[in-house]
Amino acid sequence: MSKQVNSKTFSSPFIKQFFNSVHSAGLNIYRIGFGIIMIWEAWRFLYFDKVFTHWLEPTFFFKYPLFHWVQPLPGQWMYVHIVAIGVLGILITLGLFYRVAMALMFIGFSYIFLLDATYYLNHFYLICIVSLIMIFMPLNRGWSLDALWFDKSLRSPTIPRWSLWLLRFQIGVPYFFGGIAKINKDWLRGEPMHMWLSDRTGYPLFGSFADTWWLAYVFSYGGLLLDLLAVPCVLWKPTRFITFVALVFFHFTNAWIFSIGVFPWMMLIATTVFFKPDWPIQLFNDFKKPTMRFIYILSALSFAVIGGYCSTTWQYVPMLVSAFTGAVCVWLFRDQFSPNQLKHPHVAELAPTKVRWSRLTLVLISIWVLVQSLFPLRHYIHPNWVHWSDQGNYFAWRMKLRDKEGNVRFWVTDQSGKSIELAANELGLTDYQSLKILTRPYLIHQTAYYIQDKFRAEGFGEVQVFANHIVSLNGREAATAVDPYVDLTKVPLRVGKFTPVLELTEPLRPK
User: Region 120-138: what's the mean pLDDT?
Assistant: First the structure.
């Protein structure tokens, strides 16, 4: 018999439902997929020797506000750290020591994320915050070694409904804010998409018309609408199948054309959290039928070939995720057009027994949702356009929206008035760091402090550092970005103090 939440504690029927339980199978699949992605990401760090290029080779690290104290581990310990990330991915996949593994994953991955701001990636940020909220979700109740070996009392076909909806919210945030960010004057005029596609005329299939404006508009407006409508349309059953197919095409295309690492494959797995919670049970039951088994396997193999091709290097994880996606597409089609054949016994909804924790959970979730909803909008309080100034660009899901080319030269003036000119590649930074500071004013601001410290250490005393920073945004004529008459070392590097960026007045070039 279902237990009920105390009506005196929660009078709202909506809140009561929020703390009832739903089937855990869908989130079990997500947990397994998340663990596999993290194993793969750790392997990528080691295979491409990013440990050396990211953390052992540099002598200076660019920092996020409030995190200047984060430093790499000494010697070869960074390799050990990345191996540990892979091991934690294995534990999460198996559901073994799940809570501890998830907490260590959050700490460990957040640590490498915070080491150097030049390596900021939106999906790294997503991994950090998803890892945090997954610590508090009981995703080891089913299909886990924790429930099988160590604590059989964990076994349950259900999890609290708030776990499902909190994860849905967090996965939906990049889609929604990614769409909001695309509503800007350049994107709506087809830039920088036209520039990017024009560089890919040698690609098969669409290379012969990659330079056309109509294709740029299809990609620009299609991406905008898909980002904004993806979540509601996947949640709504009548549009779920066609929307997921569109998302598969979207993520496969991104992986093929833009080579953006694990992000497309991670989002393909994550999007399944918007399906009905028990969808894997229905798929497995349908797979038992001989005819449907053949169709599922054929679809999985076909998608695996396509996914392997889109991953450019035929790596195993993209092929595995693509095969999974192919099977999901078959199930979605069956679920939409043959729903009666996929029914299974109903799972009774259970309510939590510790109401006092429910109240705390509700408060914490409300705060989290508020922060995640407002923080990506902070660029509206910053001066200048975010695409130009970069102020408010991080942690805001502003993904693949602009194309910037730039150059910077620093002028260092000592107390006698003597000046020295330095280019970005003359500062002792790595090649990657030198490339990144060419287009990012915030990094140029930090570089000025780095130059000041360097000259001070060489006995020059106090120096002034000015930057002549020229940038072209989305094909515009190059313009001055950072004010060349401001000594950047006199502008504090702290929250609320902005890099002195000049206003952008250059228009887009005519078509």
Answer: 96
